[in-house]
Write a structure and sequence with these properties.
The complex is a heterodimer of chains A (272) and B (333).
Chain A (H helix, E strand, L loop, with lengths): L3 H13 L3 H28 L8 H13 L10 H9 L2 H4 L6 H34 L13 H32 L3 H15 L13 H5 L8 H8 L7 H29 L6
Helix pairs in contact in A: 1-6, 2-3, 2-6, 3-6, 3-10, 6-7, 7-10, 7-11
Chain B lengths: L10 E16 L3 H10 L2 E16 L3 E5 L6 H8 L7 E6 L8 H5 L2 E5 L11 H11 L4 H15 L14 H11 L7 E5 L7 H18 L2 E5 L3 H7 L2 E6 L2 E7 H4 L4 E7 L7 H6 E5 L2 E6 L3 H11 L2 E7 L3 H16 L1
Parallel strand pairs in B: 3-7, 3-8, 5-6, 6-7
Antiparallel strand pairs in B: 1-2, 1-4, 8-9, 10-12, 10-13, 11-12
Classes of the chains: A mainly alpha (272), B alpha/beta (333).
């Protein structure tokens, strides 16, 4: 027997793993976009002789890991939760002897992690192992800088998952005000990829923007783990970055809790 | 009218002066109304419950009736801890439902007939197992209670079917089982027989009765089906427009009215006294409405006339209830 929260995660995981067709579609689209980005950056590096803040190999890591972990970023809401909020089913969630935030957090965690788990492995295998075999090694995903970098990368992916789940929770809670969720679903794909570094790696932004980019939660959802992997953040400087991730996690969870308590007070359940 | 007369020291559910106001956004009709609504919202207060008080002792089986929109579901939702009332007091086994929600809901079971609480895409048995984990029921206790529920509600053949593929009757049985896996002391059933066929209804009633008799589970049940009430409940509370109108036995609901249907040998010439009691006639069959004195009436009729057959009827409980609803409406005007 599992505790309530692991059980919730396990069930959602099992259900989401059924969407294999979507995973394959996602894999091919992300591969396609990955190649386009690689070509853009190859052209960029070829056209400039100035020293860049990142090497091309480090950018490759950034691109391919970004494609592999795309589904982990908080750019959409769980339709099942959205549907429950629209249909008033939230009320019935309160019948369970569980803290509502923790209950939804468990579901949201599975919602973020399950599709990623399905897509990540083929993407990494393909870009790390298959691309060099077919003669595209200069476009392939390089292995981690060192064993330690690889291990710390895995640790930072945990932080990435936690951060992303906490942020998705805030999006879910906001649905209790906006009802439809369309607005959030359209706004986030504009904000999240830019500030996490998914469009352009954060170190390539102008210097005057760096302080702003440093102090925001999205950095820990892509930039940090990817740069740990490639050694752009050396092993000796990893610890503060990991702490930074968990600090933001604390802030996002605290805010989410507060928001949910406010939302619950306004909760109106239809029916007499 | 005996809401407070049922006070007893062993009350498990205590409700006093419960009040619930909903604020509903209003919009004027048409396009202009929609535009105006952007700038300023008008709100209307709707009083869903007003000064509702009652007590229920452990092991009681209580019916809660009233027309649509009377406040039944609102009451159930407050008692289940998912809705916070605007005023009044409520304590269930010493806990305030909405304030000690987590501890409270672990001890109750709730079924909403209109909506399943099972997971749509999961096979029934996996829903049960998830509930076991959510309620932290240990494996031994779970196995015992789930085996019993499967046997009593005849669920064996349904266990591996995803909930979305079940018929309404099957789903309701599963929902009922799901609400009892953690062996709650109290169950709230909101229209548990709605939309069910006759066989399913009977099975449902049988089970609820058994649960109440053998395990002593307290049951509060809302329904529109007076047969449910007659078959199950010793006590009935009637609510309309958010106010409790009556709280008593099923017998209280039955009026003293009796109907005597008499088949005569040929059309009789009635005495003026009997003529006054006549409700309707159809050939040789005459129907009399009596408020009392049935025995004397029967004696007189059989002595005075040639009678072939004779039946005494209660007016159906529905009629009495409908009459009560109507009275409540006109008294509010």
């Amino acid at each position: 027997m599992l505790g309530p929260y692991p059980a919730i995660i396990a069930v959602r995981f099992k259900m989401l793993l059924q969407y294999r067709a979507a995973a394959w579609a996602g894999f091919s689209t992300q591969l396609f976009w990955g190649f386009i980005k690689v070509m853009v950056f190859a052209a960029f590096f070829a056209s400039s002789s100035l020293a860049q803040p990142m090497t091309f190999a480090q950018v490759l890591v950034y691109i391919w890991l970004g494609q592999a972990l795309l589904a982990l970023l908080p750019w959409n809401v769980d339709q099942e939760i959205a549907e429950q909020i629209r249909g008033g089913g939230v009320a019935y969630e309160l019948l369970r002897p569980l803290d509502l935030y923790s209950y939804w957090f468990a579901r949201t965690l599975a919602f973020r992690a399950a599709p990623t788990a399905l897509r990540m492995l083929p993407m990494v295998v393909f870009t790390l192992l298959v691309l060099p075999l077919i003669g595209l090694e200069e476009w392939a995903l390089p292995p981690p800088e060192s064993l330690a970098s690889g291990a710390w990368f895995l640790v930072s992916v945990l932080g990435m998952l936690a951060l992303s789940t906490a942020f998705t929770m805030i999006m879910h809670i906001c649905l209790m005000w906006t009802i439809s969720g369309e607005g959030i679903n359209r706004m986030m794909p504009g904000i999240v990829p830019v500030f996490s570094g998914l469009i352009i790696p954060l170190p390539l932004f102008p210097d005057w923007l760096q302080p702003i980019l440093y102090w925001q939660p999205f950095r820990g959802m892509a930039d940090v783990p990817f740069r740990i992997y490639s050694g752009h953040i050396p092993v000796t400087e990893v610890l503060p970055e990991i702490l930074n991730q968990w600090l933001w996690f604390g802030v996002l969870v605290g805010f989410g809790y507060w928001l949910l308590n406010r939302a619950r007070r306004n909760l109106v359940i239809q029916g007499g | 009218m005996t809401a407070l007369s049922r006070r007893s020291s062993d009350a498990q559910i205590v409700v006093e002066g419960l009040e619930k106001r909903f604020r509903i956004a209003r919009r004027d009709r048409g396009l202009w109304g929609a535009v105006k609504g952007l700038a300023r919202r008008d709100y209307q207060d709707v009083l869903a419950l007003h000064d509702v008080s009652f007590q229920i002792a452990a092991g009681e089986l209580v019916g809660y009736i009233g027309p649509n929109g009377a406040g039944k579901s609102t009451t159930i939702k407050i008692l289940s801890g998912i809705l916070v009332p605007s005023g009044g007091r409520c304590e269930i086994s010493g806990l305030v439902p909405w304030r000690n929600r987590v501890a409270h809901v672990a001890r109750i079971g709730v079924v909403f007939g209109q909506r399943t609480q099972l997971w749509w895409d999961l096979p029934v048995i996996e829903s049960f197992e998830l509930l076991r984990d959510m309620y932290r029921v240990d494996q031994h206790r779970y196995q015992r209670s789930v085996d019993e529920l499967i046997a009593l509600l005849d669920l064996e053949s349904l266990l591996d079917i995803p909930v979305r593929q079940l018929s309404l009757g099957q789903r309701m049985r599963c929902d009922l089982a799901a609400s009892l896996i953690h062996e709650p002391e109290i169950i709230f059933l909101d229209e548990p027989t709605i939309g069910l066929d006759a066989v399913s209804k009977l099975a449902m009633r049988e089970f609820i009765k058994k649960q109440n008799h053998e395990r002593g589970t307290t049951v509060l049940l809302t329904t529109h089906d007076m047969d449910d009430i007659e078959a199950l409940c010793s006590r009935v509370m009637l609510i309309n427009h958010g106010t409790l109108l009556q709280d008593g036995t099923v017998e209280d609901l039955r009026s003293d009215q009796r109907r005597v249907v008499v088949d005569f040998q040929g059309v009789p010439t009635l005495t003026p006294d009997h003529q006054r009691l006549l409700e309707s006639s159809q050939g040789e069959r005459l129907v009399f409405a009596l408020a009392g004195g049935v025995t004397e009436f029967l004696g007189e009729v059989t002595a005075h006339y040639q009678v072939r057959d004779l039946v005494v009827e209660h007016p159906p409980i529905e009629e009495t209830v409908a009459e009560l609803y109507r009275q409540a409406r006109s008294s509010l005007r």
